[in-house]
């Protein structure tokens, strides 16, 4: 087993400048727009889930009007493969995932939760929320949002279909244990799956310049309050992204932060083997951190506007290879 060594930190500055009328929300269209600065994470290894089928090329983020905007460039094969995004935004959370939360209407026997039981993140990461996107064919995508509540409580979540990738998870589609809405505002998303560039197929070192050049993929916007954040102060969030199969029991080698060059599919045992669940995956066994750390500045009023913006800039500290 490889033991993590001392980390060397690399900083990506993603400074967002807003003009006099920049209080308007960004456009969610699955294309990396001008509001996104430098990448907060870039792929380090080629994909074993198929070149231009399932790959995570890079990640981007900015903040405006009390909302987090994120973009994951790349592709997702339309065979119900999952693009999983985990958020560590508050105290508590799960470093080792439990088998407790009931994911949604089709998870009556909690098979998703059961498959994640024992899955271990890096020691600096504890998942609070789980978002995943998928498509079973055509242009329609669905996205689910789950508050795992530290793995001790269940939550009923909703999902939505999206023609040509555009969709919304509405406040009324999710309910917590008390029956109240689990969202204060809608989540907007778009999946543009047209990328034909980026990383190649295989397990070698990724061409990071090619990965950073990709401009299409999965984009979404969520209110900071629905991540458990106070928009009036500076916040640190950690985000981990992983592409896996349709049954949530076999992970690819496509993660952000990226895995070391030479790493193949993780499977369920962390070494590419299928064991029926993800209990054998422990990211502490791989050098580097397989998550990204993003600093969100506090909101300050824009002159002449009632809107509150994250205009102080967004600096993402991404733990790189060591």
> Helix and strand string, N-terminal first?
EEEEEHEEEEEHEEEEEEE
Helix content: under 10%
* Multimer state: single chain
Tell me about the largest β-sheet: 9 strands, antiparallel
SS element count, helices: 2
Cα distance spanning the termini = 16 Å
Low-confidence stretches: 1-24, 300-322
Rg: 18 Å
Keywords:
322 residues; mainly beta; nine-stranded antiparallel sheet; six-stranded antiparallel sheet; 17 strands; globular; disordered N terminus; disordered C terminus
List the helices and strands and how they pair.
Elements: E1 9-14, E2 41-42, E3 55-64, E4 67-75, E5 82-88, H1 111-116, E6 129-134, E7 141-147, E8 159-162, E9 166-169, E10 187-191, H2 208-213, E11 217-223, E12 235-244, E13 251-256, E14 292-296, E15 300-301, E16 308-309, E17 314-319
Antiparallel strand pairs: 1-17, 2-3, 3-4, 4-11, 5-6, 5-12, 6-7, 7-8, 9-10, 10-11, 12-13, 12-14, 14-17, 15-16
Provide structural commentary.
The protein has one domain (9-319). It is built from two helices and 17 strands. It is mostly beta strands and 322 residues long. The relative contact order is 0.25.
Provide a brief overview of the structure.
4% of the residues lie in helices and 30% in strands. With 322 residues, the chain is mainly β.
């Amino acid at each position: 087993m490889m033991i993590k060594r001392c980390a060397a930190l690399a900083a990506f500055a993603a400074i967002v400048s807003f003009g006099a009328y920049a209080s308007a929300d960004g456009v969610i269209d699955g294309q990396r727009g001008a509001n996104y600065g430098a990448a907060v994470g870039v792929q380090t290894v080629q994909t074993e889930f198929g070149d231009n089928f399932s790959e995570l090329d890079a990640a981007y983020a900015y903040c405006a009007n009390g909302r987090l905007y994120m973009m994951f460039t790349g592709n997702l094969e339309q065979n119900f493969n999952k693009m999983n995004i985990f958020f560590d935004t508050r105290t508590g959370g799960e470093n080792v995932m439990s088998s407790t939360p009931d994911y949604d209407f089709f998870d009556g026997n909690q098979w998703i939760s059961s498959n994640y039981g024992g899955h271990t993140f890096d020691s600096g990461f504890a998942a609070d929320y789980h978002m995943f996107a998928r498509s079973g064919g055509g242009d329609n995508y669905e996205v689910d949002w789950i508050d795992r509540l530290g793995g001790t409580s269940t939550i009923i979540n909703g999902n939505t279909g999206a023609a040509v990738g555009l969709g919304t998870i509405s406040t009324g589609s999710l309910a917590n244990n008390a029956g109240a809405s689990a969202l204060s505002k809608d989540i907007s998303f778009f999946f543009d799956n047209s990328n034909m560039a980026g990383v190649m197929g295989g397990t070698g070192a990724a061409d990071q310049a090619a990965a950073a050049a990709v401009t299409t993929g999965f984009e979404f916007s969520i209110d900071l309050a629905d991540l458990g954040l106070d928009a009036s102060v500076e916040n640190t969030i950690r985000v981990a992204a992983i592409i896996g199969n349709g049954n949530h029991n076999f992970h690819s080698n496509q993660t952000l932060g990226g895995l070391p060059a030479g790493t193949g599919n993780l499977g369920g045992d962390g070494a590419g083997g299928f064991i029926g669940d993800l209990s054998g995956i422990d990211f502490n066994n791989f050098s580097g951190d397989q998550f990204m750390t993003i600093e969100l500045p506090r909101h300050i009023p824009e002159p002449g506007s009632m809107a509150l913006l994250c205009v102080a800039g967004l600096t993402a500290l991404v733990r790189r290879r060591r």
